[in-house]
What we know:
It is a single chain. By secondary structure, the chain is an alpha+beta fold. The protein has one domain (2-153). The chain has helices at 2-6, 25-33, 40-60, 100-111, 117-135, and strands at 64-73, 76-86, 91-99, 145-153.
Amino acid sequence: xxxxxxxxxxxxxxxxxxxxxxxxxxxxxxxxxxxxxxxxxxxxxxxxxxxxxxxxxxxxxxxxxxxxxxxxxxxxxxxxxxxxxxxxxxxxxxxxxxxxxxxxxxxxxxxxxxxxxxxxxxxxxxxxxxxxxxxxxxxxxxxxxxxxxxxxxxxxxxxx
Length: 160
């Protein structure tokens, strides 16, 4: 788990990515530039999410491809890795893995009819990156289906 996080060069050195844009920018810079204590809960979530992404990728066998992106957005370089993009570019898919508490909050918002703003932002950043770096078309000319899957890492407890 620690090796995978330590070897992650994509999310390092202050690089701006679609995922990192959703969090606190100060925290991102501090984590990249200062020695800080490792947050084991965050590291475990990242590890489990990465392992599950790999398993999904193996099971879909070429129906989708992970796509690494890099382009200028909003006057700065932004990078991203789409979990899956259909070969015909008609759909961008993202899988999110949460702890059970975060999943409960997301489900509560969904049932109240509230959109997941962070995920909508991330998927639209991917859409813009693909339009600019892969297809090289105006942003509004690329309107794929944006699909997100939320999956929980459920915690178990002792029954009554």
